[in-house]
What we know:
The protein has helices at residues 26-30, 60-79; strands spanning 33-37, 41-47, 83-94, 102-112, 116-124, 130-142. The longest helix has 20 residues, at 60-79. It is built from 2 helices and 6 strands; from the N terminus they run αββαββββ. β4 and β5 form a beta hairpin. 17% of the residues lie in helices and 39% in strands. The protein is of the alpha+beta class. It has a 6-stranded antiparallel sheet.
Amino acid sequence: MADTDLPPAAAPADAPLGSHVPPGTLMERMGIEIQEVSAERAVGTMPVAGNVQPYGLLHGGASAVLAETLGSYAANAHAGPDRRAVGIELSCTHHRSATEGVVTGTATAVHLGGRVATYDVVVSDPRGRRICSARLTCMLIDARPA
C-alpha cells in the first residue's frame, strides 16, 4: 500500500488533523498537511519550496502527489475501518505553476461506490488560481491483517 493510502485514523484521536503526518512518508518529505477529511471531501496544503523543478516552478509531479494524497484520504474515509482504498488511476492537467507560497488542494467526491471511489481534485495557488485539475479513482479492498 502506498503511503498516500494511509487511513485518516492513523493520527491520534486527540491530535489536530493537520498536525500529524505519518513519519517516513512522502507526505512528510513534501510538507503536505491535511486540514479536512470526510468521504465527500478532503483539503490539504503543500509548500512550493522544496517541491520545485530545476527552473524554480512547482513540479507537476508534486501537484499529482498532493492530489493523490487528498483523494486517497477521502476514499479511505469512505471505505470504512475494515477496508482500504488503493489508487488505480490518476490523471492530471497542469494549467499554470507557482513559484512561492503554499498551494491548497481540495478533493471532491464524484462517485462513492461499494468497490470504487472517484474524486476531482483542484490544486490552487495562494491567490486562488487553479494550478492543476486532477481526477483520482481508488479501488476499495478488504484491509489485510497487520
